[in-house]
Amino acid sequence: MVPDDQGGGLMRADLLSETIPGLDEALTAVDAFDRALVAGLLRPQPAQTAGLTGLAHAVAGSPLAARVAEAAEKAAGGAASEDHFVALAAARTALLGSAHDALMARIEEATGRPRGEETVPPPAGQQAANLLAAARSWLSDLARSGWQGIDHDVVSGAAPVVSAMLPDPALRRLATLLDGFAAELAASCPGASSERFPERRWADLWSRALLLTLPGAAGVPVTGTATGRLLPLGVDVHEHATAVQAQVHAVFEPADGAPPRLVRAGVAVPKPDTVVGAGLWQLLRPHMSLLTAVGEGRSMDLTDMPVTAEGDLIWSDEHARQGEPADAFATARVALPAASTAATAPLDRHPARIAVPVFLEGYTTHDKDGALTFTLADGPVVVDADRIPTAGPLTPEAVVASGACIGLLRWDAGTYRLQPLAVETTVRKKAVAIHAGGWAGGTTDKAGVKAEKAATDAVAVLRERAGRLLRK
After folding, report:
1. Residue 43: is it exposed, middle or buried by C-beta count within 10 angstroms (0-12/13-18/19+)?
2. Which domain of life does this protein belong to (predicted)?
């Protein structure tokens, strides 16, 4: 445990601001390669060739060196094959994986918490080789055309591949990725008329999809079971126009007395775009009893709950029952410091995937021109108030007035940032805890009740209209 006099709460902020050796160089190589994909690799120009060469140099000391050097040379000459594109995608993924590991190592040093020693085994299962080859061919064509060269003919090549993959559960992960990627590309067609592209995002999707076409890579992750007590820390909400996901971060205490560890449990559902704010919980609540426990401030007792090696609970209400009251801030103060972080699967090692629960207290808050920071005894921590969901009572104003915070430590735009999940503050001279997921199990708050009623009305109208269409 990190002493309270070394940073406030349970984290040393000074370590988060120190330079990480090699990080900038790795990300620079990735960025240069991503720019090379913009114009495509059919007839590369000198700037693109430099990006390919830089990627090869960045992995020169790794087992990938020979293959990536050959791939970069072939791609620079406009003669890259599918295998060469796979090698380039692997090199890019390896660099981002090394950046992820360096950033996580710094977080572990700052928090004083251990990382799980268990390694993530490769997924099991076999997939249809012909469909994987078809997906690999389409992704290679994308690399040759580049984002500037995409048109509806190029993008539509994914449709038959996705349609053939979806019926096979073992291929559904890759199919969903390809489908979403193709939809984003289609929305930007023709590429020749676009001035800017989401270079990092599209290169992420391209390289991830390409590696998932390798046999076995897209299989179902190996799972075990978890029996013990689950102590929720907070809820992270991800909302899209047509879907919403709630992810509960928690400390799990195994019944066999093994050390506690951090786990996640998530639920995602489709939604109409008219359901927003607190109304989202109506769609999520029926699918996971854990949300009710979070809203009521209770633990849950798990029995043989499926869990992946990465710490993701494959939630099933059959394996859970409501437990005793459990205050999230008590969990953060007592159980969180000793909880280990789960191992990360190779393809999931990416800076954007970092979201580590941390606890801070004893800070002062500074809000200057919309830039919010918590200043601890040894330095500031940037607060990402834009990530606070509208589906709960937590507000930026409450964060500004807080004295303790449970949040997710992320890495974004070149710096560590804290996403608040819950805060302790003073309201009318009383100390209160305000949670982003405070309305997950229902609410008597006026704003929450109003939003839930509006959502109920919207869903009722949509169901009535859908029923009318089905009757015709």
Report:
1. exposed
2. Bacteria
